[in-house]
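pinned: reference chain
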Amino acid sequence: MAVKPSKADKKVAYDQKLCHLLDEYGQILIAAADNVGSNQLQNIRKGLRGDSVVLMGEEHHDEPVH
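pinned: its C-alpha cells
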C-alpha cells in the first residue's frame, strides 16, 4: 500500500511545478476562480487544451507550511 504524501509535501511539489512552469514559459496569466462552477471551469480547460498549460491550485496553497 502506497504512503500518502503529507500536506507539506504536496505544497512543496506544487511550488516546484509552479516554479518550473514560470521558468519554462515567457508569458503567464494568473486568474482567481472564486464562485465559478465546475462545468464552466471544465469548458475553459477544454478550450485551452493544446494551446496552454492550466495549473489549478487549491485554497490551501496560500496557507503557510508549519
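why pinned: The longest helix spans residues 7-24. The CA atoms of residues 27 and 66 lie 32 Å apart.
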